[in-house]
Amino acid sequence: MSAQHSCFEVSITDRVAHIRFSRPERLNTFTPEAWIELPAIVKDIDRNARARCIVVSSSGKHFTAGMDLAVFTKPEGITSEARDPHLRAEKFRADLSALQDAFTCLDQARMPVIVCVQGGCIGAGVDMISACDIRLATKDAFFCIQEINIGMTADVGTFPRLCKLLPEGWVRQISYTGERLPATRARDLGLVNEVFDTQEAMLDHAMALAREIAAKNPLAVTGSKAMINYARDHTIADGLDYIGVWNAAMLSGAHMREAFVAKAEKRDAAFSDLLPLRDGPI
Q1: Is the same domain home to 153 and 254?
Q2: pLDDT in tens, 39-58
Q3: Total domain count for the chain?
């Protein structure tokens, strides 16, 4: 990936893509550029099958302070007064959809996404990490639905996803109060998989986990992610039916054979990468 980014650094090693927030001096806030760059990076990795797993991390004291306040105060921003409030409402809905899609691409990527949180994960940061597959944190990390503290309702993905990840009572409490949810409590409640003493230890674990995922059959991994997402959003009966349809079409005897032979020969299995996706007509 040769593109230059103003808000992120991107590297790909051992079939693992690492996306890193790179503006610690601005607390890694989501500027207008960040909203454009992040989905472009993720979709490029996904559509071109550049990696088998994605790790998202940050730099500096905090993971992200959320939405850059300049987004709210610019002349055409949400706090401005429009001549026609109905036209402004229609534009807001369309603009918001683009912001929601910036995080939905993490949920919809064919490969798993591991996110590593240090310090504050605030506002839009909670929206973002809720769309990832696996969440890790340092012991000093905390999560805050900041929107309530600035007079608005979180709208970029917190509630639809967080209600699937945390007990409803806790979602209500932290969304109504804007209080901080510490990393250890987040782990106890199931939002975070593990908590680490240092960011270095967290990243080492994330990369080892990502490499382990990358060593598995990519078709089986993406199938697992698709089934988990589908089961989350549908009934048990629907989920059972869909996994049957999926495996009827995509269960590979050759891939299973390679897994068995590799284990018997005490070697790493050799699986093909996912195929790149094509834009436009097939």
Answers
A1: no
A2: 999 999 999 999 999 999 99
A3: 2
